[in-house]
Amino acid sequence: MRVSYEWLKSMVDLPQDPQDLVREFVRTGTEVESVERVGAEITGVVTSQVLEKVPHPNSDHMYVCKMDVGSHNVDEDGNPVPLQVVCGAQNFEQGDKTVTALVGATLPGGVKIKKGKLRGIESLGMNCSSRELGLDDDHSGIMILPKDAPVGVDFLEWRGLTDTVIDCEITPNRPDCLSMLGMATEVSAMLDEDVHAELPSIAEESADAGRTADLVDVTIDDPSLCPRYTARVVRNVKIGPSPEWLARRVMAAGSRPINNVVDVTNYVMYLTGQPLHAFDLGKLSERDGKRHIVVRAAREGESIVTLDGQERDLTPDMAVITDDGRTPVALAGVMGGQNSEIDEGTVDVLLESASFEKGHISRTSRNLDLMSEASIRYERQVDTARCADVSNIAAALFEACCGAQVCEGMVDEYPVPALPATIKLRPDRVRALCGAPIQTSFMAQRLRRLGCQVSEGEGEHDPMTVVAPTNRHDLTREIDLVEEVLRLWGEGDVEPTLPAARNHAGGLSVEQRRTRKICATLRSAGLSETSTYNFADPRDLERLGMPERGKGIPVKILHPLVADQGEMRRDMIPGLLRSVAYNKDHGVQNVHLYELGRVFFGHEGKSQPDEPTYVAGVMSGRWADDAWNKKYANLDFYDAKGVVETLLEALRITKVRFRVADPDEYPWLQPGRAAEVLAQGELLGWVGNIHPRALGNFGIDDPVVAFELSEAPLLRLAQDELPYQEVPTLPGVKIDLALVVDESMSYEQVSQRIRSAGGKLLASVELFDVYRDEKRVGAGKKSMAFSLEYRAADHTLSSEEVERAHNKLVTKVIKSTGGEVRG
Question: At 579, phi and psi to the nearest 5?
């Protein structure tokens, strides 16, 4: 809802600064989307007068003019002098008053006026048309101002175009605020000010024009579609431009002025919130001396060409206004038809002011993809009780702005009268629910400001009876009034208090604490949290090279917003790779991201998919850009593995090991640079380099290392505490062991066999060298050197004990690995 500050100020006293009103809107629950100053893009434009008009010596259609712009052009002594302007318009004469943009002025669209020469003659400004000023589409010539217009004053201020427009976001439950009167009422309650709106009234209902009831009758087939329909006739309408004040207010509300008839209906809608429609009475068929309006449901196969020139097929759940029950002439509450529109030949007008059932209007607008200012208000429900009053306001404006004669009376079909809600309000209940010392007098006063009729009790604690206004359909219960009182009193002024409770301990659950620790650990490791779309491209897994086994069946989206988001994601890595590609394309070379989120696995015969949670990360580039005193290496597999190890250590998960990933099982990872992550014999996930083929499918040229772990086993295996182990006080014995094994043997396999063979005395195993040489070690062989430490918990080991344990270990390891001890 665009709220004109100047228009609103004419109905209720406002603060001098519009920002003060904006703060009050926000305080009381009305969001403000923007605040704009009308005409802010126009500067340096003044009223002027043509003092001299001489034909251009080098042109057959331009003139050299001397323009009086007052003190905006002066000589060396500071005295006003005429301004020379070359003008090509043909519609002005010497002595006319017009509008001139000075050198340095700005016009709509970013146009800036500069000093220049036209056909060799210097021009120091520009005489403007109304289209060049953004006022309308007329560019037939420059603007000609009234003879009494002042000269040399700011055009915007003189024309009253220095308004401020506040664009408010109105929630669906507040259709009363989709009007200037409704906003004035709201501001009245916010600021505790009186509303002093002066509404136009009909000067005279003309007997010569006839009685509306003799010219029109109305039939409502189904009151559930149309609770009320009023019709008025105004005759001898003179179509033409709207008065300046009317056009200005229609523009401030967001519409383009068209002609006085259309502008009146738009103005009254913006003023009252009640949409109107004007039919050309002469285009409706006549029977028995009358036009017959029938409101009914559309019939199968019917169609209508609406005012936007589109032919629209109708269905039986749509309401239509018809000419004598036969031809649809309007889509009820949405848009009129071309076959009855107002045009330059219109003489007599049938004015509709009606109420339609909001559900039907909403479905019609949605099904036809046709939204209008009228449908927006009807689908939120208009004030049925005020249809006749609004019709009278519009008729008065037709009389004043269109020179029309208003026929006597109106036709008012009102089969379902709107009854206001009567509500009992207990002041003590208000104070108890709000937790604030709100005075009973404040409640009564502010509710009256909102249009309620309030009957107070005798004392501060006595209940009051409140009759809600018919335009507040959201006020039906006591709690609705409590909410109104509280928001006007100020939720921010309520003193915070702890709720009364016994034996309730707040805090995070174990799973929540562990989930937060996962995120905190990854952030501390240098990764930034991100959130990618849950929607995915159906080809994501194929692009990645990830098989579908174990991923369930895709969960399809019935009406995807875009083609490449047609199903719910089954893996998180594609989304993260897109984030890497986006960052790389925008110049960010070092990318370290992680995400904790759900994936979706559908199953045949099940109505709901599985939604397991995973934590995944991607890393590319380096940890940081090089500095003068430090160089950083490119991130590789071991950096990602280190992040995973840091995470598992923070969660205190024990018995962690990494197993070489089978390339056939992990085709999206580079062979030899990928590993499965296990803990206590359970598979947690994987870590490795993304295959270059997969990176190319996502538009990435640089290497990327990634990991993906299932959250469920992480939370289940995590521990808050570890068993205490005393610091060793007895010395250990270190012995180096070099084993020659087949190239296919991995570190994980060899170290596991060493630990298994070492028994209780083996305290630690550490690989410190890998050596390959065909002559000294053998083809297809490698030497792996380990540092072994032996220690007993209860005594100092003797050399015999160590030798015996070590020999036993060597024998078992040689046998299990097929290797030999390197001499």
Answer: -65, -40
- The pLDDT mean for the chain works out to 92
- Per the document, the length of the chain is 823
CA nearest to 544, candidates 574, 518, 521: 574
How far apart CA 502 and CA 605 sit, in angstroms, is 46
Share of the chain above pLDDT 70, in %: 99
Judge if 805 and 737 occupy the same domain. yes
The answer to whether residues 301 and 342 belong to one domain is yes
Tell me whether residue 255 is in a domain: yes
Nearest to 530 by CA among 461, 599, 488, 578: 578
Residue at which a domain ends, from 386, 413, 440: 413
**For the residues 534-551, what does the mean pLDDT come to?**
92
The verdict on 605 and 705 lying in the same domain is yes
Q: What is the CATH number of the domain that holds 767?
A: 3.30.70.380
What is d(CA 412, CA 354) in angstroms, rounded to the nearest whole number? Answer: 9
Number of domains in the chain: 6
Confidence grade of residue 734 (pLDDT, cut at 50, 70, 90):
very high
Distance of CA 596 to CAs 361, 457, 519, 617, Å?
A: 43, 58, 8, 9
- What are the tens digits of pLDDT across the range 401-455? 999 999 999 999 999 898 999 999 999 999 999 999 999 999 999 999 999 999 9
Q: Are residues 236 and 178 in the same domain?
A: no
> What CATH number did the domain enclosing 53 receive?
2.40.50.140
Question: Rounded to an integer, what distance in angstroms lies between the CA atom of residue 332 and that of residue 218?
Answer: 14
Annotated binding site: 474, 480, 483-484
501 pLDDT band (50/70/90 cuts)? low
CATH code, domain carrying 562: 3.30.930.10
Strand partners, 598: 613
Same domain, 449 and 374: no
Q: What is the pLDDT of residue 507?
A: 82
For residue range 11-70, list pLDDT tens digits in order.
999 999 999 999 999 999 999 999 988 777 889 999 999 999 999 999 989 999 999 999
Closest of 89, 91, 86, 130 to residue 108, by C-alpha: 130
List the binding residues for Mg(2+): 474, 480, 483-484
Boundaries of domain holding 367: 205-413
With CA atoms as reference, report the closest residue to 188 among 31, 20, 11. Answer: 11
Q: Is residue 628 located within the same domain as residue 672?
A: yes
501 located within any domain: no
Residue 331 near residue 367, CB atoms below 8 Å: no
Q: Say how far apart CA 821 and CA 676 lie, in whole Å.
A: 29
- What are 177-213's pLDDT values in tens digits? 999 999 999 999 999 999 999 999 999 999 888 999 9
**Cα 439 to the center of its chain, rounded Å:** 38
Shared-domain flag, residues 47 and 27: no
Q: What is the DSSP letter of 556?
A: B
Are 290 and 427 in the same domain? no
- Alpha-helical segments (H) within 689-779: 692-697, 711-717, 747-758
Surface-to-core class of residue 444, CB atoms within 10 Å of its CB (0-12 exposed, 13-18 middle, 19+ buried): buried
SS3 label, residue 700: coil
pLDDT band with cut points at 50, 70 and 90 for residue 103: very high
Helix (H) or strand (E) holding 414, with range, is: none
Q: What pLDDT score does 504 carry? A: 65
Widest distance between CA atoms in the chain: 132
CB atoms near residue 77 (< 10 Å): 6
In a domain, 655, yes or no: yes
CA angle 430, 434, 440 (to 5 degrees): 40
